[in-house]
Design goal:
Elements (H helix, E strand, L loop, with lengths): L28 H5 L2 H17 L7 H15 L10 E5 L6 E4 L3 E5 H6 L3 H16 L2 H6 L7 H10 L7 H11 L4 H8 L3 H14 L5 H17 L14 H13 L9 H13 L3 H13 L6 H14 L3 H14 L4 H13 L3 H14 L4 H13 L3 H11 L7 H14 L2 H13 L4 H13 L5 H26 L1
Parallel strand pairs: 1-3
Antiparallel strand pairs: 2-3
């Protein structure tokens, strides 16, 4: 299957589109077209594309921040059984999108354009509402001749690269003979419902409802600058004054409460700013804002500057910023991880180990720290400690492919071939790459080492993988 880059996306939900009139009564006809099981199968296919896209942000702290924020909102959504997957797209435009099966992407540009966490939450709540209200399945239900393959084609077409708009248009046209424009026009009728349900999710989860209005205004201003950069069918539709007015009225009707901002939000913003430009440019930006006092949170600004200095290999200045953070900012996992990475980067293995152990004692399930300590053990030729650490955490993160990659490296250092290939197979499986997973498990089965119990496990697992792959082959032939 063709691999698509993630880029500027206007989903079928038209998440930033114009205010709509009252929704038509569609009933439950969508469930006759796409079942919940089929939605998840389509979501898995979409996530396959996401897993291999170079445009997806791979930084685990950014990933976990968005996931935790999304999960908090989902807990207050109308459909608690709906599965969701959140990811971050490295794209400067202000946008977010929801796909069938609860796949939600957020552009880095949207996070950077937000003034506080509640604004990001307001967009996520809106997208979650599109999913829980089954807007895309309801839209597809109007085209009763569409097959699941066509639905998947439409979904994947939204992931085509901006770098090749002609390919994007061709894929989109092939995906639906009914015409994409008609579908996009239809989905605008769902925006009012997504606003209403999203607002309720936002406030029930303890966020500031006023943030939806403030960010709508940001989006309206931002669209003036971003529209012309995208292919016509992917352009963000402007948010109208009517939509803003409707949410403003809801805010007036709700009780006001002071919402303290999550300081991690500002640190994540600074990290994205520090990573999304050249090291020198990032350094100049942060130095300038600190000199002119153009910042909301000085600690977050210095955190970003420390990252920029480390990227530039200016460790003397990076240490100065880190020392300032230790004295002036309340302990948090982001800073602790940065300090540990600094010691690793300056070749201080003993200090790094002690800091990792202390930090994990405070934040035992923080993935960035777990990754860092496991990598440290591998670097210092202590694979047995890496294996114990990762196996202790796998029950918390059973679907983390990188944990299995680290396990594979650790077993390789110990010369345990069966376990090495088995772990690598599980890593590929969690990246939705069944052929490579089968290949590695076959290597595990053929390995000369391993006891009877271990061989029985890999042989059984290989049968499971091959059976799952045969089902996928059947689907592809339909």
């Amino acid at each position: 299957m063709m691999k698509f880059k993630i880029t500027l996306i206007a989903s079928f939900f038209c998440c930033l589109s114009t205010f709509a009139d009252e929704l038509p009564d569609l009933g439950d006809s969508s469930q006759l077209i796409i079942s919940a099981k089929e939605e998840q199968a389509i979501a898995r296919e979409i996530l396959k594309e996401v897993a291999v896209s170079p445009e997806i942000v791979q930084d685990v702290e950014v990933i976990d921040y968005l996931k935790n924020l999304g999960d908090r909102l989902v807990a207050y959504s109308p459909n608690k059984r709906q599965q969701f997957n959140f990811f971050v797209v490295n794209e400067s435009s202000i946008n977010a999108f929801a796909m069938i099966g609860g796949v939600i992407g957020v552009h880095t540009g949207l996070i950077l354009a937000s003034n506080n966490e509640s604004e990001v939450a307001s967009v996520l709540g809106h997208e979650i509402a599109h999913v829980t209200q089954r807007h895309l399945p309801r839209m597809i239900a109007q085209q009763k001749n569409d097959s699941i393959r066509t639905v998947l084609g439409i979904a994947l077409a939204l992931l085509v690269a901006r770098a090749n708009p002609q390919l994007s248009a061709g894929t989109m046209t092939a995906a639906s003979a009914m015409g994409v424009q008609k579908q996009l026009d239809y989905t605008r009728d769902h925006e009012k419902e997504a606003d209403r349900v999203g607002f309720q999710i936002l406030t029930d989860a303890g966020f500031d409802g006023r943030s939806m209005v403030s960010f709508f205004n940001t989006l309206q201003r931002g669209s003036r600058f971003s529209e012309g950069a995208a292919p016509s069918f992917l352009r963000t539709h402007p948010i109208t004054a009517d939509r803003i007015s409707d949410i403003s009225n809801r805010v007036k009707e709700s009780r006001y409460k002071q919402i303290p901002d999550n300081p991690d939000f500002m640190f994540i913003k600074s990290k994205l700013r520090a990573m999304n430009s050249t090291p020198q440019s990032a350094v100049e930006t942060f130095e300038g804002s600190l000199k002119d006092k153009r910042y909301i949170n000085e600690g977050a600004e210095r955190y970003g500057l420390a990252i920029a200095y480390m990227r530039k290999n200016d460790f003397i200045k990076a240490r100065q910023e880190i020392d300032w953070l230790k004295v002036n900012v309340k302990k948090n996992a982001l800073i602790e991880t940065l300090v540990c990475k600094f010691e690793v980067s300056t070749n201080q293995p003993i200090q790094a180990l002690n800091l990792y152990l202390k930090a994990l004692n405070i934040y035992p399930n923080y993935r960035a720290l777990i990754y860092g300590l496991a990598e440290h053990y591998l670097m210092t030729s202590e694979p047995e400690k890496a294996i114990k650490l990762i196996n202790d955490k796998l029950n918390i993160y059973p679907d983390d492919s990188y944990f299995y990659e680290l396990l594979s490296k650790a077993y390789a250092k110990e010369g345990k071939e069966l376990l090495q290939y088995q772990a690598q197979s599980e890593a590929y499986y969690r990246k939705f790459n069944l052929p490579r997973a089968i290949e590695q498990m076959e290597f595990a089965v053929k390995s000369k080492d391993g006891n009877f119990y271990q061989k029985s496990i890999v042989e059984s697992r290989l049968k499971q993988l091959k059976f799952e792959n045969s089902l996928e082959d059947i689907k592809d032939k339909k």
